[in-house]
Amino acid sequence: VTVVGLAGTVFEPLMVSSLDEPYSLYGHLAEDIQIASDKKSVIFRLNPAARFSDGSSVTAQDVKFTFETIKKKGHPFYRFLWADIKRAQILGRRSIKFSFTRVYPELPLITAQIPVFSRKWVGDTPFEKLSRTLPIGSGPYVVEKYRLGKGVTYKRNPRYWAANKNTRRGMFNFDRIVYKYYKDETVRLEALKAGEFHFLHENYSKLWALEHIGPKYDSGRIKKELFAH
């Protein structure tokens, strides 16, 4: 997944993390997880309520198809991350087993974070040619519109299946989320100052100290806040 915002808003994993814990996961698309006694495989049972944005159920076939497609045709990062996930095996409509090449404590957690999309979205189209086909995921948002290389707009799904689930309750309250792409950092910063977008996560200390200054910062119109590490 390379388009900013797709993961977590459109595509969801089997289990989700808590932002106030180092590495704890809670059942989401999967309502149950069973780790084998030898630690070399894991079985997920999907939540029967899980639905994609088109209303269709999330099935083990979708999970297997997603895993195999991304590992084979997705970004090389996933081939490295999932190198020790040997295979996915469908046990039933809502049950899937992943086998590992070795025993490693993080493998069940890594597997649980696979972003799942609908097999129907891909169909017979080669995966690498789907850039203009709106994705079908199970998340709280759908892609409303996009401009290649310019930006993407997400619209909240009013029929989101997990709106009242513990892992999602109280979250995703914006009706629309817009990401804009800037190829030049100077242009991006000036666009922020001009009010073309509302939030920027600044990672460069030099820009933070020397460029994020001016009347709008002094007046509080632009809030500059340092988050503790």
List keywords for this structure.
229 residues, alpha+beta, 4-stranded antiparallel beta sheet, 24% helix
Question: Could you explain how this protein is built, in words?
Answer:
It is a single chain. This protein is an alpha+beta fold and 229 residues long. It has helices spanning 6-9, 60-73, 76-81, 107-112, 119-122, 185-193, 205-210, 215-219; strands spanning 15-17, 25-27, 30-35, 41-46, 85-92, 95-100, 141-147, 151-156, 176-180. A hairpin with a 7-residue loop joins β1 (15-17) and β2 (25-27). The longest helix has 14 residues, at 60-73.
What's this entry about, in short?
This protein is an alpha+beta fold and 229 residues long. The protein has 8 helices and 9 strands. Helices cover 24% and strands 22% of the residues.
Read across the widest sheet, the strand sequence of neighbours is 3-4-6-5
Strand content: 15-25%
Helix percentage range: 10-25%
Secondary structure tally, helices:
8
The end-to-end distance, rounded to whole angstroms, is 27 Å
Radius of gyration: 20 Å
Instruction: Please summarize the sheet with the most strands.
Output: 4 strands, antiparallel
